Amino acid sequence: MSQVFVVHPTHPQPRLIAQAVDLLAAGGVLAAPTDSGYALVARLDDREAADTLRRLRGLDARHHLTLICRDLSEIAQFAKVDNQQYRLLKMATPGPFTFILQASKEVPKRVSHPSRKTIGLRVPAHPVTEALLAALDAPLLATTLILPQHDAPFVDPQEVIDALGKQVAAVIDAERCPWQPTTVVDLSGSTPEVLRLGAGDPATIGL
Fold first, then answer.
1. Largest CB tally within 10 Å, which of 64, 109, 112, 186?
2. DSSP states of 28-90
3. Is residue 153 a contact partner of residue 38, using CB atoms and an 8 Å limit?
4. Cα separation of 164 and 138, whole Å?
């Protein structure tokens, strides 16, 4: 059975966050709350954990996984960002946007899109996610927790426990989290393209 860390949704206990990070460091996949539903998260440099993310979601290698980053400077480390893109990202982060960008050499090839060499990146606004990132001191490889037999992500921790209680190392229970999908913006081409309209208003970042 997975471990369950019951944390405060706005002031997560550092001791419990540290225990969750220990599981990540040991190669575990966690179910963690974000500002757009629960996500499956793992260390970026863990090959087996990345395979587990895709297996649980029923995804092939062409589906973009996402790097959850602490801030804009971390995005710039893992993606190729020009001045125009940087200004746009600065307006949008933290917030409910996911950006598709050309991956830098810091991103393992097995994680980026196999032909386009792109990666999804975002900076969420959720205290628990922020605490995990700070304690791990690295980005999280993530995918929204939508199982193959479902058409919407999990937002209730007990439902996550019931569905994945034996398949992930731990579930972080921070009460129900909000659900509205992120707005996905492709910045990998010559002009920005909104691929999915979600919680983020493109007009607020000039799109």
1. 112
2. --EEEEEBTEEEEEEETT-HHHHHHHHHHHT--TTSPPEEE-SSHHHHHHHB---HHHHHHHH
3. yes
4. 25
Pairwise CA distance, residues 101 & 188, whole Å: 5
Tokens (6 digits) for 26: 């040991």
Instruction: State the Cα–Cα distance between residues 68 and 41, nearest whole angstrom.
Output: 9
C-alpha distances (whole Å) from 144 to each of 48, 87, 89, 153 are 18, 26, 21, 7
- Of 38, 18, 32, nearest in space to 136 by CA: 18
Number of domains in the chain: 1
Q: Structure tokens of 107?
A: 């991103």
pTM, 2 dp: 0.91
Q: What is the rounded CA–CA span in Å between residue 80 and residue 56? A: 29
Q: Is there a contact between 86 and 46 (Cβ–Cβ < 8 Å)? A: no
**10-residue averages of pLDDT along the chain (207 residues):** 93 97 95 93 89 88 85 91 92 93 86 79 94 95 89 90 92 90 91 92 91
Residue 184 CA to residue 97 CA, distance in Å, equals 6
In sequence order, which residues have a C-beta less than 8 Å from that of residue 119 and are 6 or more positions away? 64, 65, 66, 67, 78, 79, 100, 101, 103, 107, 111, 112, 113
